[in-house]
Amino acid sequence: MLQLSVILHAPLTSIPHLLHSARASSMNRIVVIGSSCSGKSTFSRYLSEKLQIEYIELDQLHWLPDWVEREDGEFRALVSQAVLSDSWVLDGNYSVVRDIVWPRATTMIWLNHSFGLVLYRAITRSVIRAVTRQPLFSGNIETFRQTFLSRESIIWWVLKTYHLKRRNYAVLLEEQRIKGVNVIEFNSQKAVDAYLKRSLRAV
């Protein structure tokens, strides 16, 4: 099986050729990771539509109504069942199910955006969700109080975890690459857009 490890600093014109060679064997079970507010869900939904395979959102499996977190054992059981299928795109960073999800992955995609971009997205997304009262996982709604006056704030979470996750993922993904998993890292939204527009055109 052809293995692919791509860090997207290379010319974008080379990416479609590389992916064309590896797509048949490696683009069937894809795990998308990255900091909160890096765009994982939007990217993963679009990718799953382009590849015409199932989309699995870990947040949807994790959260119960009223922002209650599902018990770990139940969460792990749901995730174990979800990843049994042969083809999917899955997004989420939950370490409690990493031992279930990552061994099934044939490709790992890291949305490794800058801190400034991620923080900007965290703020704008939170304001929009609070204003529109957009229902999220299990019908949960983000409020202004939760966003700006709570330790549960996604903005606070980004500030607290961004740099630690970035360091950890660099090490963990290198381990995955050594094991033979295809690892793709995006360092900018431009690279993400080019990948979706050019690399998947022939799918």
Keywords for this entry:
8 strands; 203 residues; alpha/beta; disordered N terminus
Topology record:
Elements: E1 5-7, H1 15-26, E2 29-34, H2 40-51, E3 54-57, H3 58-62, E4 63-64, E5 68-69, H4 72-82, E6 88-91, H5 98-101, E7 107-111, H6 115-132, H7 144-148, H8 154-178, E8 182-186, H9 189-199
Parallel strand pairs: 1-8, 2-6, 2-7, 3-6, 7-8
Antiparallel strand pairs: 4-5
Describe the structure.
This protein is α/β, with parallel strands linked by helices and 203 residues long. The protein has a single domain, classed as P-loop containing nucleotide triphosphate hydrolases (Rossmann fold), CATH 3.40.50. The protein contains nine helices and eight strands. It has helices spanning 15-26, 40-51, 58-62, 72-82, 98-101, 115-132, 144-148, 154-178, 189-199, and strands spanning 5-7, 29-34, 54-57, 63-64, 68-69, 88-91, 107-111, 182-186. It has a six-stranded parallel beta sheet, with helices on both faces. Helix 6 crosses helix 8 (154-178). It is globular and about 45 Å long.
Give the overall form.
Answer: globular
Q: Helix/strand/pairing class, anyone?
A: alpha/beta
Please provide the count of β strands: 8
The CATH C-level name is Alpha Beta
- On the 0 to 100 scale, the average pLDDT is 86
Short structural description:
With 203 residues, this protein is an alpha/beta fold. The protein is built from 9 helices and 8 strands. The chain has one domain (16-199): Rossmann fold (3-Layer(aba) Sandwich).
